[in-house]
């Protein structure tokens, strides 16, 4: 299984999934550990906010974890067969482990971006 996390700095989980262009991609190994397999550094037109259809590099993942995401983003991901979740956890491996354990805490209402996009959940 593959999991992507939004990571504008390629270190921590960052908010604003719809406009994110950088993602860390992990494969879950046989022991349940997350192993980083790729880093996506996409052009602006490939952010989900700008993307207008066709195949997308995120289509290879089954789960996407972000610091914040609006309902439109979550619906877009669901239509692509990807489960999108938000979290206040900033460490990618910790978040992935918690997701699979069923203990990942979602991002709070006041967390995430502060613009007018609605990307607070």
**Uncertain regions spanning at least 5 consecutive residues:** 111-121
> What's the total count of β strands?
5
Element-by-element helix/strand order: EEEEHEH
**In whole angstroms, how far apart are the ends?**
24 Å
Shape: globular
Q: Please tell me the overall pLDDT.
A: 91
Q: What is the CATH architecture descriptor?
A: 2-Layer Sandwich
> What is the SS-derived class?
alpha/beta
Strand order of the largest sheet: 3-2-1-4-5
Strand content: 15-25%
Number of self-contained structural domains? 1
What is the percent of helical residues? 10-25%
Query: What does the largest sheet look like?
Result: 5 strands, mixed
Spell out the CATH superfamily: Dinitrogenase iron-molybdenum cofactor biosynthesis domain
Features:
121 residues; alpha/beta; Nucleotidyltransferase, domain 5; five-stranded mixed beta sheet; 2 helices; globular
């Amino acid at each position: 299984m593959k999991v992507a996390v939004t990571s504008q700095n390629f270190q921590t989980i960052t908010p604003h999934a719809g406009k994110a262009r950088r993602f860390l991609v992990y494969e879950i190994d046989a022991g349940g550990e997350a192993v980083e397999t790729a880093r996506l550094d996409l052009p602006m037109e490939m952010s989900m906010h700008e993307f207008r259809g066709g195949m997308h590099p995120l289509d290879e993942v089954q789960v996407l974890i972000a610091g914040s995401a609006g309902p439109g983003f979550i619906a877009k991901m669901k239509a692509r067969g990807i489960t999108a979740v938000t979290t206040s956890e900033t460490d990618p491996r910790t978040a992935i482990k918690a997701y699979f354990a069923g203990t990942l805490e979602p991002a709070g209402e006041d967390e995430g971006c502060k613009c007018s996009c609605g990307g607070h959940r």
